[in-house]
Amino acid sequence: MGKHQHHLCMPAESREAARKRLATAKGHLEGIQRMLENDEVYCVDVMRQIKAVMGGLEKAREVVLEGHLRNHVATAQARGDAGELIKELMDVLKYS
Questions:
Q1: Which of 16, 48, 89, 92 ranks highest by number of CB atoms within 10 Å?
Q2: Number of compact structural domains in the chain
Q3: Is residue 6 part of a domain?
Q4: pTM beyond 0.85, yes or no
Q5: Contacts of 73 by beta carbon, 8 Å cutoff, 6+ apart
Q6: How far is CA 6 from CA 1, 3, 19, 73, in A?
């Protein structure tokens, strides 16, 4: 967890939107696992479904990022922790 966890919480609307997107991705992932139990499943169909799950995960990440930018980064200068927040954000984004 980040250094700011004690005073910077994820906005409720971002948390709920990300939760819904992840639940959808989880359902798709479970569907892929069921597909793979079928001996006649077509490789390309599996790849399409995997791509859909990846897209859902990316959308969830975008929701969280936007909430962070709007609620924490935009106010960082006034709090005096802009440098730290930018460093954290750059660190997490390099894994994207």
A1: 89
A2: 1
A3: no
A4: no
A5: 82, 85, 86, 89
A6: 10, 8, 21, 16
* CATH of residue 36: 1.20.58.1000
The 10s digit of each residue's pLDDT in 1-33 is: 455 544 678 889 999 999 999 999 999 999 999
| Residue 4 lies inside a defined structural domain of this protein | no
Give the phi and the psi of residue 80 in degrees, each rounded to 5.
Answer: 90, 15
H-type helices in the chain, by residue range? 12-35, 43-68, 76-79, 82-93
pLDDT digits (tens, 9 = 90+) for 38-47: 999 999 999 9
What are 5's two structure tokens? 């966890």
Which whole-number Å values give the CA distances from 9 to 1, 15, 22, 36, 71, in the listed order? Answer: 11, 10, 19, 39, 9
Q: Which domain holds residue 25?
A: 12-93
Residue 5 lies in a domain: no
